[in-house]
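Q: How would the structure tokens look for this protein?
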Amino acid sequence: MPLHPAHQLNAARKRARQTRERHGIPALGPVPDLVTLAEDGARVPVVVTALADAVDGAYLPAATGATIFLNSQRPVVRQRFTLAHEIGHHALGHARSVDDAQALAAEDGGQSIQERCANAFAAELLIPPDAARAWVAARPHDSRQPDTMEDVVRFAAAFGVSAPMACIRLRTAKLIDQERADALLAALTAQEHLALHDGLEDLPVLDDTLARAAAGDGSRVPPAFAGSVGALRL
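A: Here is the predicted structure in token form.
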């Protein structure tokens, strides 16, 4: 008999925490390089290339080994969440999955339990609740919740994720309330944070494989596929 969805989601989060611990990722910091985690840790090559507009990424298991594809046309912060999601599919033993924006939505009633579990894994892998609480505790202390647009932008930069994902994580960690999170998400959807982001000179920048690929032509062929054009077909 299948586990209740709540139990499956909790199991996915637990697997993400175990993944962090197994690979020596600092408990309270960002994942240094998700591509390294996928390829050296899980032995799953990561291809970054232009995909169909509707596709953010894909997890393709096969008898010879799984492959992850990411859409190079997406922002790096989006690619990171997608990659964490695809690593989740692998860690949780899921079948083939070609993922669009709806599959990767943090909260969507139309998602399958498989996609919801992969999202729960991704969120826990990227920002465990304890890491979120530690970041809030370490910021210049006052009595406010971390509920300003600047708070969200700085939190997102600290973990190398998008501002909307950061806002949702602050809410799920119960560090900001639902009403304020909804207001911030509406402003983020309207991209009101972009000018603020550009004006903050001391934001950390995560220098990982995906960021370096984006600084070039955006694409990446894993060493395992060097010289193999056919292996790059989704």
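The domain at 5-126+207-232 is CATH 1.10.10.2910 (Arc Repressor Mutant, subunit A).

The longest strand covers residues 67-71.

Upvote if useful.
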